[in-house]
């Protein structure tokens, strides 16, 4: 601890803190322009100068000067004020004073300081900057005439995003921030730079000239795209969202956001939003009143129930619903309709979470990522799937010098910083992990004490792993023995290693086994807190926890515990395990009436042809959604639902953290929050539900699920289970010579992003990527349309040829309408579980 | 005695009448005639046009709306075809306006002023919300005719 004096008061701070941090701790404000707590200090603007009296008198920048024992500092002497005023005058020489039309006005640091220091005249004069304004780049407008060269945009883009899209060009009076050859931006469009810019040089095109910041109503809520659940603040004017900004809270994102969070909410104002309930009459969907639609749904649910029995009915929810909605939905299906046929997102989303819960007792954590000294990125293209988690990896690697091991079937952005990049055959992650486990046991790199005291099943697990000799691993994965050994050593020797896995990629239904294999690795080295399993959707974790699963009640309680639920719900519950989504869309499906809430199986389930067939044969299809999706267009009854900014509730993020969403808007037209629709439907169905708010539902959930807020950390007992690598890749033949990999895409996520014009504007068209060698041998040229054909179907896509991809593999990212699902096989039911496959394809000229 | 004083008062009254009969009157035959208000009169809000271009001077900074203590002003701006700021709508609810003139003081462009118009009566309350065009041209006053 170091003691120093600021403005006559003594304070103790830790060594390595800056004067600015010390002052902040005392509540003394020092103005800053080029400083941000997320970035390394550079001391470029000098507005934060303070006067040091002792030991050597003079002015020093507070943001970039470390504290020292016995320093005596004054932050607001006349001299300091005079210097700051002069700096402002200098900045204002060429700064255009166009505050009346600048969208930053009201939250502009330069404006605020100019006012605070009373700079009403300028002793200096010079040419005003007259650079061309960049109105071409999507989403971000750059008016560099207003730039004060603080460098924050350049630094955040490099330090946090690891994109380094812009840099300083020119010197002296000519210096400016620009791209190479002044081309428009072509980056990740995270929008971090425009949030951090202290002036109006970088502004959002979505907000452009549409209002002023002080008019905006600020609503603190949670991003509804990926499973990280970043906290952000929406700026609303006259019933329209105009802005989003990372919230300065204790949430996972620490003020950062990705492109989806920053710009992707526009779908909520899309003109195609459903505004009225629809009912199919004479083959056409026509708008009807809520009363008619609800009564018709109830009448027909009843009809099927009486005629065939409750097990001919089923419900599929969405991992985008709030916890409260999922809970009521499953309660309606179970108690209202009387069946356990309930599932969500194709039914394989929760497998990995199950494994974590069973073997670690908590859902993993992202918190420790930034402080890790070794990160194993396993099948995690984070800059595409979970960009904000990617920031943490960047910081750990670039700032914290963590050793990065990237294990992915194709090179990713992080590969260039990787100590080791392991490119393996798709689907063979488990062999790789088992191989590492074997090396660790063999070389005695494991934490025996931890294994003995806090885990079980070591012997059986090590027996399985023993078979994965480096040679066998090479045979299965294609990774060199030396590389596996080195990776195992690096991981085992690290003090705080972390494993990151992202959820939901092919082979479908395999995540629980993969996660268990990773848990084995984490546990034998005694690092139960170093595992992050990143789910795809905002509430994947909650949907699973709230019981949208055929075999589990809320809180993951088995069906045999139904007594307690029957008591609270006042209804008898079915005891027979229900059908999963995969069962429902099976050939032998016996479902006659289906209720889909926010889910589009045509886009989310493999083999859409068969899925469509099942849907067509239904007697009753009720769809509740924001848009008339392909599946809603097939429905008999459609209920218009409210979006994330139009309702209240909570989402549970990938770490099991329960976070609130708040209504910023009133629902469009007659759309209603899912909570209202479900409870009204249930009431009409004869199962009484009445809640006046989501909080009331939450109170009921908490009564039944005491650990609604799941455990946040390892609680001392872990399970080791040996996992064998399955043969997951289909046969490679002359007809199907290429392995198909699926990848994430930062601009899109599920079915909502395609209604966001901001996102589709940046990333409009689906593509298939292939290596230049494969392209050559198949006589395919980049940029052309090609047909990708698997054993199950085909899709027409534009091809992008690059040298990055290994030979023999093609990559389709998850664009909306990529047709990826056409190509994938339905997982097969084998030994009591569904097993997916990675398929092989052929690419031919279209 | 009474007669003398009565006659006196009667004559004074008569003198008064004749005096006013030949001096100009204070009241005006409104609406046939109307007052010309002094230069600094604070009447109905008006948006000023640029003399050269003939377009409104307002750049849409919302400062007047922010300052207005009666919250009478509502503005909406959009991005114009040349990426400039365009005032899409500018409304003043004159039934709320208290003629304080703070909006004119806030305006950095001299684009809003208080005119010398003072005739506000309308048949319908909704007529008291003046739109941009009305604010630029001045309200059209419907006169009572026989
Ligand atoms: S939007 Fe993000 S990636 Fe693009 S320049 Fe700004 S900080 Fe860099
Ligand atoms: S554009 Fe903004 S953030 Fe970037 S250097 Fe200029 S003032 Fe700083
Ligand atoms: S990382 Fe995920 S939660 Fe965070 S802003 Fe992006 S999409 Fe939203
Ligand atoms: S005169 Fe006063 S009350 Fe009337 S519009 Fe202007 S600021 Fe508002
Ligand atoms: S203050 Fe002046 S320029 Fe600004 S919006 Fe009002 S009238 Fe227009
Ligand atoms: S804020 Fe300290 S030098 Fe810029």
Task: Note the main attributes of this structure.
heterodimer; A: 846 residues; alpha/beta; Ubiquitin-like (UB roll); Rossmann fold; Dimethylsulfoxide Reductase, domain 2; seven-stranded mixed β-sheet; six-stranded mixed barrel; 28 helices; B: 146 residues; alpha+beta; Alpha-Beta Plaits; three-stranded antiparallel β-sheet; two-stranded antiparallel ribbon; elongated; binds iron/sulfur cluster; binds FE2/S2 (inorganic) cluster
Commentary on this structure:
The complex is a heterodimer of chains A (846) and B (146). Chain A has 846 residues and is an alpha/beta fold. In chain A, a hairpin with a 2-residue loop joins strand 1 and strand 2. With 146 residues, chain B is of the alpha+beta class. Chain B has one domain (35-137): 2-Layer Sandwich (Alpha-Beta Plaits), CATH 3.30.70. Chain B has helices spanning 2-22, 63-67, 102-106, 132-137, and strands at residues 45-47, 73-79, 85-93, 112-114, 129-130. A three-stranded antiparallel beta sheet of chain B has the order 2-3-5. Chain B has a two-stranded antiparallel sheet with strand order 1-4. The radius of gyration of chain B is 24 Å and the shape is elongated. The chains are: A alpha/beta (846), B alpha+beta (146). Chain A binds chain B through residues 99-101, 105, 133, 135, 141, 208-212, 214-215, 238, and chain B through 59-63, 66, 76-80, 83-86, 108-109. FE2/S2 (inorganic) cluster binds at residues 32-35, 43-48, 61, 63-64 of chain A.
What is the count of helical runs of chain B? Answer: 4
Number of strands of chain B: 5
Main sheet of chain A, how many strands, which sense, barrel?
A: 7 strands, mixed
Outline of chain A, from the CA principal axes?
Answer: globular
The number of helical elements of chain A comes to 28
Give the quaternary arrangement of the chains.
Answer: heterodimer
* Percent range for β-strand residues of chain B: 15-25%
* Uncertain segments of chain B: none
CATH topology of chain B: Alpha-Beta Plaits
The share of residues in helices of chain A is 25-40%
Radius of gyration of chain A: 29 Å
